[in-house]
Amino acid sequence: FFGAPEDGREQTMRLRDWLTSLPTTAPLVLVTHQVNVTGLTAAVPQSGELVFVSLDSAGGVTVIGREATT
Fold first, then answer.
1. Per-residue b/e over 6-37, b at no fewer than 16 CB within 10 Å?
2. Less crowded by CB within 10 Å, the N or C end of the chain?
3. Crossing angle between the packed helical segments 34-41 and 8-21, to the nearest 10 degrees
C-alpha cells in the first residue's frame, strides 16, 4: 500500500483473513515488504530480516522470532 496508504488497514485485514483461512498442516513462507510486515505484526524489520510469526484461529499474530540476514 505504498501508493495508497489509506488502504493499508483494509489490505492488512484481508491478509489476516486469508491467512486464517489456510490449512495449518504445514509452515507457510511469505516474502514481502517491511510495510506489510509492520502492518501485520507491528514489528519493524530491518532490510532482509526474517520475521517468524504464529497466527491463532482468530487472526491474532504473535512474533515468535526474528533473524538478521546480514
1. eeeeeebeebbeebeeeeeeeeeeeeeeeebb
2. C
3. 70
Residue 51: Cβ within 10 Å count: 20
CA distance 40 to 8: 10
Alpha-carbon distance 66 to 50, whole Å? 6
Of the candidates 69, 10, 36, which has an alpha carbon nearest to the alpha carbon of residue 53?
36
The pTM (predicted TM-score) of the whole model is 0.80
**Cβ atoms of 4 and 10 closer than 8 Å:** no
